[in-house]
């Protein structure tokens, strides 16, 4: 499919037909990559916890994963 580029300020853009957006399950944002002179748009799958593992590993490496409340306090309230 050939489509024209449209001027958007100093940039250029394309209009993507709604049928293609629906087919590719595209929401408000896409991921843009450039590979071998090709522009690739990928739909972003909403993964609420994406990246958490990496963040937790960094926290542990930086010793930033200490408990905020001492566990001894929990022991005082047990029956």
CATH T-level topology: Pemi-like Protein 1, Chain: D
Query: Kindly state the mean pLDDT as a whole number?
Result: 88
Count structural domains.
1
Q: Cα-atom Rg, whole angstroms? A: 23 Å
Keywords summarizing the entry:
79 residues, alpha+beta, Pemi-like Protein 1, Chain: D, two-stranded antiparallel ribbon, 4 strands, 28% helix, elongated
What does this structure look like?
The protein is an alpha+beta fold and 79 residues long. It has a single domain (6-76), classed as Pemi-like Protein 1, Chain: D, CATH 2.10.260.10. The chain is built from three helices and four strands, in the order E-E-H-E-E-H-H. The strands form two sheets. It has a two-stranded antiparallel ribbon with strand order 1-2. The chain has a two-stranded antiparallel sheet with strand order 3-4. Strand 1 (6-8) and strand 2 (11-13) form a beta hairpin. It is elongated. The model has no long low-confidence stretch (mean pLDDT 88).
Set down the secondary structure blueprint.
Blueprint: E1 6-8, E2 11-13, H1 18-23, E3 30-35, E4 38-43, H2 52-61, H3 71-76
Summarize the structure.
This protein is an alpha+beta fold and 79 residues long. It contains three helices and four strands, in the order ββαββαα.
